[in-house]
Structure formats: C-alpha cells, structure tokens
Amino acid sequence: MPAACEDIRDFLRREPASILVEVTGVAGSAPRDTDAWMLVSEQAIFATIGGGQLEYMAIDQARRALRSGIAAEPMNVPLGPEIGQCCGGRVGLAFTALNAELADHLIARSDGEMAARPHVYVFGAGHVGDALVMALSLAPLRVVLVDTREDELTACIVPHIETCLTAMPEAVVRDAPAGSSFVILTHDHALDFLIAAEALKHRDAAYVGMIGSKTKRATFRNWLSRETGLPGLFDRLVCPIGGTALKDKRPAVIATLAAAEIMTAALSWKASQSKSVSAVSR
Q1: Fewer CB within 10 Å: C terminus or N terminus of the chain?
Q2: d(CA 237, CA 73)
Q3: Residue of 76, 50, 47, 46 lying closest to 61 (CA atoms)
Q4: CA 95, 1, 31: angle at the middle one, nearest 5?
C-alpha cells in the first residue's frame, strides 16, 4: 500500500493499469460515505473505501477484472456477520477501468480536495513544533511550519508539510484564509504573545492555541488586556494546548494530544461552513 500522503500522480505513473472503485450508495452504518474512492492495480492500491472485508472484496473484484479484461460488475454488499464486518449497513460499489480522461478527472478531484483542506499554521520549529507537524502530516490538513530561524526550519524534515521563513510571523496570520488554525510555540514568549494577539483578532479562525503554563496564560491575559483593550479575545485562546488531563511534558505527548484537538476544531469548522452553505442554498 502506498503512503497515505502519496501524490496521485506518482501512483498513476507507476500503475497506469488500474481500476477506480467508488462508493455509490450507503444505507445504515458503513465505514465510509459516498465521497470515498480508491484505485486498485495488480500490485498496489491508492486511498481507501474503509478497509476491512468490504475493501478486500472490492480489491479482489477489481483485480479479477484486470486479469480477465472483462468489466467488473457493481457490488451491493451487506455489512453483516456473513462477511465478518458487523457495521450493519449496506454499501454499493462501482468499478471503472482507468483511462486518460478518468485519470485527468481523478487528478483534478484530488487537487480540489487538497486545496480545500483547512490550513494549520504551526509557529515554532522547536521540539514540540517538529513533533506536532509530524503528528499532523498524515491528517487531511494543509500544515505550514513557520519560523524566524532558517536553521531550525531546515532541520525539520517532515514530508508533505510546507515551511515559511519570515521575520514577521504575525504577518502570516493576517494573510491566512478563513477557517485556519494557529498553533503558537516559538522560542520567545514575547513573540508568542504578538502572534497570539494577531490570531485572536482573526474572528473566523477555527482554532488558536498556545503552549504554556498557568503562569504564562495569566501573563498573556494581562498583556493582551493592556495592549489591545479588546474584551473577549482571550476567551478564544486554548492554552495550554493538548489539555490538562495528562501532566506529561514530553514533546511527542504534547504533540499527539494537541494534534487531535486541532484536527477536531479544524474539521468541525469546515463541516459547520458546509452546513451553512447547504442551508442557504435550500
């Protein structure tokens, strides 16, 4: 199986003889919805329709079609004990042999899905920042690591994330699109405060979080009130990131807890916007 973040172009170059498997219908409980699809070749797969026995059956059906040259029939699979997948629903699957037009369509679709991913800006390429972008790198997010120090950015080698070297990280916040998440953990508390203040002014941010202790939180609250005079800004800040249930300061632990928190906020914001658009269109 290819890496979760592999570009579809790489897969199509290696595996031009493939079959597209799409979820065409879902009734009841199922692993994925009708936006799910995957590509199946003789040797590899790209993406997933949810895993489990359903996916194994789909892969077998697609590969039989590839070997025989006969188009694969659609499937309508009950997810019950008889196939060892007890979701309880029913899933319809369609199979389409890959051609140049379909490949172009899938590339455009994949690019569109990537472009629609929520932005997450991680300010600070230190130990926690590096661990955090690693934790977020497999999520359906567009992750940007921002720092004022070129050496620190260069030292962080995480696939599928962007880096931004800037002398004014707070300016990055101003240019961020709606629904962005801002995670602040630089090497300088004063810089943290400047970035956080700018991020909290971003009224359509999905998440604003800052690493810190109770003392740092209280200090920032006083500083923010004094410097901005804007009531209510502080209430939107998550500090410390990752919650307080675990008193574990190891970078990997903080990053793992914070990654779940950030992804929940980012995807929830996106879902709420989609519902708003749907409501207006009706």
Answers
A1: C
A2: 53
A3: 76
A4: 55
Q: What is the pLDDT of residues 206-252, one digit of tens each?
A: 999 999 888 998 999 888 888 877 767 888 999 999 988 888 889 99
pLDDT tens, position by position, 73-123:
999 988 776 666 666 788 999 999 999 999 999 999 998 988 889 999 999
How far apart are alpha carbons 50 and 54 in whole angstroms? 8
Distance of CA 268 to the CA centre of its chain: 12
Nearest to 63 by CA among 35, 97, 37: 97
Strand 37-40 and strand 119-123: the pairing is: unpaired
